[in-house]
């Protein structure tokens, strides 16, 4: 990755997260375009570009990125609602990254090497990772459906189990593909510690067995997919 792109990304992270207090965010959301903090925030982003490049010759780049950053933030403030703040946050950050990549490409015209897109191994790794998300979650849910405990249970976050399973499978996939098998044991131990209190207090052997089956299926699926990806020759 070229140094210019790294510097632009560093300036963005500093400006949007490190140097933007929560009080500024709250004020912008309350009074929107009337907030002086919005324009100060944009000015900080422009100043950071000068700082990371240690030069004033990048003023066209700083001006363009600052202007587009301000427009994106203004659109988000005008259209986001309490129920859509999470969506707008990710959309806002995605647009900022697109702007940075576009400006970097326009001003520096880098010779980007996309040869990895022609690699069979890349597409195989991507397929394995994708399978371990929703497809594996559906497969495991179907397998253990007949053992779902009935009766009153403790309330949990919506879809929390699904996303925990996806994250743990992707972590195992990453660990195995990078030859860090010891981290898989650490992850299993950590999950066991967090689950121990819930299962101990539940006094329900069916719930305990259900959780163990689901965990072992999740870990086993991730390990099998990772090992298959590593040993398939295409």
Automatic annotation (TrEMBL):
Keywords: Membrane, Transmembrane, Transmembrane helix. The chain crosses the membrane at residues 39-67, 87-107, 122-144, 170-190, 210-232. Signal peptide: none annotated. This is DUF3307 domain-containing protein.
């Amino acid at each position: 990755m070229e140094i210019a792109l790294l510097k632009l990304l560093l300036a963005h992270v500093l400006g949007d997260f490190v140097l933007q207090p929560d009080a500024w965010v709250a004020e912008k959301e309350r009074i929107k375009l009337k907030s002086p903090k919005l324009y100060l925030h944009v000015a900080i982003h422009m100043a950071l570009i000068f700082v990371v490049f240690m030069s004033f010759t990048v003023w066209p780049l700083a001006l363009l990125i600052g202007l587009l950053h301000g427009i994106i933030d203004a659109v988000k403030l005008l259209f986001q609602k309490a129920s859509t703040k999470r969506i707008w946050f990710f959309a806002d950050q995605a647009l900022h990254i697109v702007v940075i990549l576009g400006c970097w490409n326009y001003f520096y015209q880098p010779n980007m090497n996309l040869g990895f897109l022609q690699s069979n191994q890349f597409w195989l790794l991507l397929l394995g990772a994708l399978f371990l998300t929703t497809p594996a979650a559906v497969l495991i849910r179907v397998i253990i459906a007949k053992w779902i405990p009935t009766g009153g249970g403790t309330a949990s976050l919506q879809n929390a189990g699904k996303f925990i399973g996806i994250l743990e499978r992707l972590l195992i996939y990453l660990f195995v593909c990078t030859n860090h098998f010891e981290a898989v044991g650490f992850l299993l131990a950590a999950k066991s510690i967090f689950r121990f209190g819930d299962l101990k207090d539940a006094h329900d052997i069916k719930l305990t067995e259900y959780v163990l089956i689901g965990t072992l299926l999740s870990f086993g699926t991730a390990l099998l997919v990772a090992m298959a990806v590593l040993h398939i020759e295409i």
